[in-house]
Design a protein that fits this description.
Blueprint: H1 2-19, H2 38-48, H3 57-69, E1 78-79, E2 89-93, E3 98-101, E4 113-119, E5 124-129, E6 165-166, H4 173-178, H5 183-199, H6 211-218, H7 231-240, H8 251-264, H9 268-280, E7 301-302, H10 308-317, H11 333-345
Parallel strand pairs: 1-4
Antiparallel strand pairs: 2-3, 4-5, 6-7
Helix pairs in contact: 2-3, 5-7
């Protein structure tokens, strides 16, 4: 019996080793990632802390916290002296940053962050990432539809609460009108990304991204759906677009529904929806970037504020008056006249 128990234990250990990441060759503890021991690497990083600095205490602390808490090598970032980068050349400019070429590459489609450096000539900090062969981070949606953020960023030095930053087509009405960045506004953005992934068309690609579009979105405008989408996805997407933020699904609810789709996709009902959509889209023309409106902007920026005239026009259309049936007015003459004036201002007979 003991012999059988030993054989079973050995088999279980071998299975655990195959399913996990094996043992660290140095401390003989379980690795937390492929070829990565959290215990040993944390100790090594700590021993190196006094040998480098970015020149900024907060950046140093940020890098150190990541190094101490990561459980796999893919998540590590480091301070990279600018001299270690070769042939740094200008490539393009994004929402609030300039992109320059550098030599390191990790993986085909991932945009890996290797670390932070500082250009001593321009006295600017820089993120060191892998080269995006697609020419644009947005174009990675063609192959890798993983979402890390919605581009609703602003300059790190900007703290004015009155200024709103982001990409207009992906911003919820409450964000555009009141600067509210919430979990519910992220769900709205997720719905817009769903539209682009499912149809290839970015939202509002054929109109100017100006104050007129902002006002229209704040009045409930939704993007045109140019592609037949399976009903299951369309319902989820349109729930994310709900004008009332409290009526949008939560991230947990979205996860539950999408996981349910993964299982339900094997069932006839979902299959029929997909087949019907594919049949309808047989001659569908995919999005052509050349069709984009010249004033359609898909990088994060300071959102233009509507003029006073535009605000007045918008507000005048948004007034909803409810007059109770039983208005009690005192008999004094001046109060009666005051009530008549209020009714006249509302154009009520």
């Amino acid at each position: 019996m003991a012999h059988k128990d030993e054989i079973l234990r050995t088999k279980m250990n071998n299975l655990s080793s195959r399913c996990g990441f094996g043992k660290c060759s140095k401390c003989h503890q379980d690795n937390t990632g492929r070829n990565w021991c959290h215990l040993c690497n944390t100790e090594q990083f700590q021993n190196e802390f006094d040998k480098w600095t970015s020149g900024d205490r907060e950046i140093d602390k940020f890098i150190q916290q990541i190094q101490l808490n990561t459980n796999k090598y893919q998540d590590i970032i480091e301070w990279i002296p600018f001299g270690r980068l070769e042939d740094v050349t200008y490539l393009a400019k994004g929402g609030f940053g300039t992109i320059k070429n550098q030599l390191k590459v990790r993986g085909k489609n991932s945009i890996a962050i290797y670390g932070i450096t500082k250009n001593p000539t321009e006295n600017e900090y820089m993120m060191v990432i892998s080269y995006a062969k697609h020419g644009s981070l947005r174009n990675l949606l063609n192959d890798n539809s993983y979402i890390t953020d919605f581009g609703l960023c602003k300059p790190v030095s900007e703290n004015d609460p009155e200024k709103i930053y982001g990409v207009i087509p992906y911003m919820a009405p409450e964000t555009l009108s009141r600067g509210e960045y919430t979990k519910a506004s992220d769900i709205y953005s997720f719905g817009m990304v769903m539209l682009e992934v499912l149809t290839s068309y970015p939202p509002y690609y054929n109109v100017s991204h100006n104050t007129n579009l902002i006002m229209d979105i704040c009045k409930g405008r939704k993007p045109e759906i140019k592609y037949e989408i399976p009903l299951f996805f369309k319902e989820i997407m349109e729930k994310c677009w709900n004008f009332e933020s409290l009526n949008r699904p939560t991230a947990k609810e979205l996860k539950h529904r999408l996981i349910r789709y993964d299982f339900a996709s094997r069932q006839n009902k979902i299959r029929k929806q997909v087949r019907a959509a594919n049949k309808s889209n047989k001659n569908f023309i995919k999005y052509d970037p050349n069709e984009m409106h010249p004033e359609a902007i898909y990088t994060s920026r300071l959102i233009p504020k509507p003029t006073i005239h535009e605000y007045d026009t918008f507000n005048s259309r948004q007034q909803f008056f409810s007059i109770p049936d039983n208005i009690n007015v005192e008999d004094e003459e001046n109060e009666t006249q005051e009530m008549e004036c209020k009714f006249k201002s509302l154009e009520i007979d």
